[in-house]
Amino acid sequence: MNDFGRMLVGLGLLFLVVGSLILLLGKTGIPLGRLPGDITYRGKNTSFYFPLASSILISILLSIVFYLISRFRR
């Protein structure tokens, strides 16, 4: 049970850091969510938005971060 509690605290801290980074990125003017590969469709009565390029960029960055974390834990 002790390990589960530590994992929950770690995830909470990770969410805090990621949320803070998203807030800071919004204030710096980086167009995350409005990149040239994001799909946007606006019809007469409907709209659809899928941030494809933003998702790929975030996935690559998180993969690099987790790879570096795993390398330093050894």
From TrEMBL:
<keyword id="KW-0812">Transmembrane</keyword>
<keyword id="KW-0472">Membrane</keyword>
<feature type="transmembrane region" description="Helical">
    <location>
        <begin position="48"/>
        <end position="69"/>
    </location>
</feature>
<dbReference type="Pfam" id="PF11146">
    <property type="entry name" value="DUF2905"/>
</dbReference>
<dbReference type="InterPro" id="IPR021320">
    <property type="entry name" value="DUF2905"/>
</dbReference>
<protein>
    <submittedName>
        <fullName>DUF2905 domain-containing protein</fullName>
    </submittedName>
</protein>
<keyword id="KW-1133">Transmembrane helix</keyword>
